[in-house]
Specification:
This protein is α/β, with parallel strands linked by helices. It is built from five helices and eight strands.
Length: 174
Amino acid sequence: MSLPGLPRRAMLAAALLMGASASRAHQLRPWPAGRAVPAMRLPMLGGGTWDLAQHRGHAVVASFWASWCEPCRDEMPSLALMAQRHAADGLVLVTVNYQEGERPIRGFLGKLDLDLPVLLDRDGACAAAWTPRVFPTTVLLDASGRPRQVVVGEVDWGAAEPRRWISDLLRAKR
């Protein structure tokens, strides 16, 4: 099986994740020590540009996804609810779409009845810089703009463990 623009190495990683138990279909990894923080400045669905540097002072959750990714479809509603739950806390959610056009993205969001900020990673360079290119992958950044953790694979953001990650992330900004 081949997926558009996805390297063989990422396919292998995805297959390994699929073998994980249903109760833990994700891996939580610390951001690698000494690894530089890549820039994240991308066009937004609907116009404008989003720049991570402009969100200093806020914890940021950056979710990398594609509409052809079934775990991404399953995860998105809980991700949106998590963002709503913590909006008053200053949490910023941004979703980064991997190499798709506006039409499939809008169709995807419409089917799920979601209104999320979507960045367009048209050439895949942002995903390559931030993730192992396994989807979904979510990067948790503290208020100083420093990535703390990378979550590889699908997560129920309403479950106890992810709620702790977000609480810890929000506490780190104080």
